[in-house]
Design a protein that fits this description.
By secondary structure, the protein is of the alpha/beta class. The protein has two domains: about 120 residues, P-loop containing nucleotide triphosphate hydrolases (Rossmann fold, 3-Layer(aba) Sandwich); about 180 residues, Rossmann fold (3-Layer(aba) Sandwich), CATH 3.40.50. Helix content is about 40%, strand content about 15%.
Amino acid sequence: MRGDRLRVLWLRGPSGVGKSSVGWEMFTQLSRMGVKTMQCLILSGYVDTPAEVREYTELLPDAAFTLCRLRAEPAELKRRFIDRGWRPDLADEAVAEAETLDRSDIKDMCVETDGTTVSEVARIIREQVGGWPRATPAVQPSGLAAGPLAAPVGAAPTSAPVPVLWLCGATAVGKSTVGYEVYSQVVRAGVPAAYVDLKQIGALRPAADDDPGRHHLKAHNLAAIWAGHREAGARFLVVSGDADRDETVRSYANVLPGAAALTVCRLHAGPAALAERVAQRGGGHGPAIPGDGIKGLDADGLHRIAEQAAREAAELELAGAGDMRVDTDGRSVHDVTGQIRALIGGQLGPSSPPFP
């Protein structure tokens, strides 16, 4: 690396404490300040032992990690978890995770989040860590020594190829929801699988002049992520994200190692259904999505997003995008997933695992 070492801020804590929300807020603040993304990396995720942390840090021996623990009292953590509206039955498990972390010392700093807004937590973290990511002496996480790179990241696997199912469609059509349900059903059927939401692997601001849609970046990130999953034994890949042109799809297919066939399934919905789903997301319903530009918008903003989504759907319909089309109007996620299973079951090829 040239110049200063890459500074990595790792936000840790139990499910529901706000890791993704705070991480996205810090990303947004730094972007507004003009901080070049290559100067720093914000990472959020849960690990609970030094050995698990080393599995990550050893892959980036030239980086300077700072581990920041986000903490909330049990009652507040449980409230936040339930308010998310997703899997409230796991709230007690999140509290147990927090209690485990309270007994550990895997951190460089800890920030209490009770009674504090997301923006304030982000500001506190930057102040405590010394104006991060300002140039500072490189620091390794407490008691964690960096080691050699275990394997080339993004290296092409040598095992047999596997199928890839790509869910695309207009804004708010349900790409992520349906994609994750397909992935879940495949896993429940006993097939090792991976799921990737392209929006979550292309958070770069500002975008490169020659890659305004960040498709080149996301394609190469997807290739690296898939290589890791493939090495771990995954036999099926489900992707959700935009696929507005054939060239876009090819840019991903060309860098995906070990993919037998890329099948693009376009989800479609009419203007009324899209408007209803945009309104639901605006009101905070559904799983929390870091960087969701719809949540919290006023009525005018939601109306603009709904009109944009309707235009996107019409353009994709006119272009006949995708290898198959599935209408989602008035249908449940399970119903849509069932149709996809029926449509794609015979398209995976004789060398591919059966679609459950």
